[in-house]
């Protein structure tokens, strides 16, 4: 465990930042309603019982495949239904994407402030790239990002460091000078392994575990707060 710091300002002194990589679900947009709506439709297609949103919140963050497998296990469905579930989910998600979700307070202010400091911005999510781009567009956030990469963009997803390393390359920013802003252990573990400083928001989805127990450089209550502390 690294020493726990209450604010992320310390790493700004170690190395001036060139870029920031921002997670999507649970960090910029509260998408639990979209996930629940798409999963409800998928479960209905398969004549399976619905799963409460609070349970879905604990399964989000490791990409669609993991989410679908976790939901099927939760309702004690035959794992052999996976392919049908996947196809149903892929059909329904674009229809609900953005309709049951809200941008968190402080996101637009935070992104503006990061940009005003001259940082290049990328969005890196485990959500499929097409869904991520559509959601960012729908919420008016797409203009902030030089790069957008989803969970299907690289051979492995967060918490593997590969997506962060590739995103740093795409931004032309060394990992040590690229801040990861996320909401879960997936973001933090990937950032640690890639060598990126990492700050977590206090309000997202961290598999039902306290986010302050995750090894990170700091925690903030909004992206606006993160930008102000740099
Ligand atoms: O698991 C997902 O689809 C969302 O993941 P994210 O938190 O990386 O955006
Ligand atoms: Mg997230």
TrEMBL record:
Which pathway does the record list? Organic acid metabolism; glycolate biosynthesis; glycolate from 2-phosphoglycolate: step 1/1
The UniProt entry, under InterPro entries, shows: HAD-like_hydrolase_sf (IPR050155), HAD-like_sf (IPR036412), HAD-SF_hydro_IA (IPR006439), HAD_sf (IPR023214), PGP-like_dom2 (IPR023198), PGPase_prok (IPR037512)
**Enzyme nomenclature, EC number:** 3.1.3.18
Asked if Hydrolase is a keyword of the record, the answer is yes
Q: Catalytic center at which residues?
A: 23 (nucleophile)
Query: What cofactor is this protein dependent on?
Result: Mg(2+)
Enumerate the Gene3D superfamilies for this protein.
Answer: HAD superfamily/HAD-like, Putative phosphatase, domain 2
- Top EC class, one word: hydrolase
Binding sites annotated in the UniProt record for Mg(2+)? 23, 25, 183
Enzymatic reactions:
2-phosphoglycolate + H2O = glycolate + phosphate
The protein's UniProt keywords, in alphabetical order, are: Carbohydrate metabolism, Hydrolase, Magnesium, Metal-binding
Does the keyword Metal-binding feature in the UniProt annotation?
A: yes
* Protein's job: Specifically catalyzes the dephosphorylation of 2-phosphoglycolate. Is involved in the dissimilation of the intracellular 2-phosphoglycolate formed during the DNA repair of 3'-phosphoglycolate ends, a major class of DNA lesions induced by oxidative stress.
Task: Give the family this protein belongs to, as stated in its UniProt record.
Answer: Belongs to the HAD-like hydrolase superfamily. CbbY/CbbZ/Gph/YieH family.
What name does UniProt use for this protein?
Phosphoglycolate phosphatase
> Which lineage is the organism of this entry classified under, starting from the top rank?
Bacteria, Pseudomonadati, Pseudomonadota, Betaproteobacteria, Burkholderiales
